[in-house]
Design a protein that fits this description.
This protein has 329 residues and is α+β, with helices and mostly antiparallel strands. The protein is built from eleven helices and twelve strands. The protein folds into three domains: 133 residues; 88 residues, SH3 type barrels, CATH 2.30.30.520; 79 residues, 2-Layer Sandwich (Alpha-Beta Plaits). Helix content is 40%, strand content 23%.
């Protein structure tokens, strides 16, 4: 029972945060979030990232005259409307019936139910992220072991826009190199997780550093200008985490008729366009880099999706099939 209570409390905090960020003209600082909710830096950033994903057109990060970072939601479109179902509202009200004698829990949940009824929208857009945050879901999958202290140091530097010194183990020869970088965000891929960072004065030319090869991190007192860098828009350039100098390929896939309905439930890429053909198949088109990770995903469809373009994608598909065949002799 305690776990459920914690989960509802976290969801209530999230909706309270939305309300506060709507009402605040200047915005909320990291310190405000800590004082209001008692959140750690990691939890605060997780909540902010969720809001940024939910409200990309109204979420604002900006630095004030006091050099602190402020977060706010523009009033317009701050509370979108849409997909929270009546069944979900009824379910929450049913829960309220079970706890009607517990006033300390009932009152905030009644407020939560009212806010959900008002939102009835994009709060359900990223239900996976919301479920993970509230502790009601898990995402079992292979993970690389990464030093949490290093991740925390990097994350704090990203939030504060501070230059950081990392000791980085080079993939080529294993040498350890000290590097000063401006940390911009993280990318989590199928094989590796990366720190996206740039050299001072080159924020418009970000590089990727494999997180497990960052052996130490030390934040400096020096600030840098992130120039409005958006990790989500940056990630849209690729299907996975690879971004090359090509600038993106015009990708085309053919989904076989028997897999069409399932494929329609997927968002393969933010720029996708899906056309249903007369034979029942689908044509999926988008612009992206990251052909290797694209092939890895296509293989999970067991031949139900055929790569049509570019020719480099077809070549990579054949190469991965060759490597897989060699692996089993």
């Amino acid at each position: 029972m305690h776990t459920g209570r914690d989960n509802y409390a976290r969801l209530y905090e999230l909706l309270t945060l939305i309300d506060l960020m709507r009402k605040s003209m200047r915005g909320l600082t990291y310190d405000d979030l800590r004082d209001k909710f008692g959140w750690s830096a990691k939890t605060a950033e997780r909540m902010l990232k969720l809001l940024e994903t939910q409200y990309p057109n109204s979420f604002v990060r900006e630095r004030g005259e006091d050099n602190k970072k402020y977060f706010r939601l523009r009033t317009e479109d701050a509370l979108p409307h849409g997909d929270i179902s009546e069944n979900e509202i009824v379910a929450l009200k049913t829960v309220l019936g079970f706890i009607k004698n517990n006033e300390s829990l009932r009152l905030p949940l009644e407020s939560l139910a009212a806010k959900l009824k008002t939102l009835k929208g994009k709060a359900g857009k990223d239900i996976e992220s919301l479920s993970l945050i509230t502790g009601t879901a898990s995402a079992p999958r292979p993970r690389l072991r990464i030093d949490r202290k290093i991740i925390q140091e990097l994350q704090n530097a990203i939030l504060a826009c501070r230059v950081i010194k990392i000791n980085y183990k080079q993939s080529s020869d294993g040498t350890i190199t000290p590097i000063l970088v401006c940390p911009l965000g993280f990318l989590y891929g199928a094989q590796n997780n990366y720190l996206v960072a740039a050299h001072e004065g080159e924020v418009n030319r970000p590089r990727h550093y494999i997180l497990e090869q960052v052996l130490s991190a030390e934040t400096s007192e020096k600030f840098f200008d992130a120039q409005g860098f958006d990790i989500h828009r940056y990630a849209e350039k690729s299907f996975g985490v690879w971004v090359s100098s090509v600038g993106g390929y015009n990708v085309k896939w053919r989904v076989k008729p028997e897999a069409a309905e399932r494929a329609l439930r997927f968002t393969f890429h933010p720029t996708q366009k899906i056309t249903r053909r007369k034979d029942g198949s689908l044509l999926v088109e988008f612009v992206a880099d990251g052909l290797t990770e694209m092939v890895w995903h296509l293989m999970t469809w067991e031949g139900q999706i055929q790569p049509l373009a570019p020719k480099e994608l077809i070549t990579e598909y054949k190469e991965q099939l060759r490597l897989a065949s060699e692996a089993i002799g």
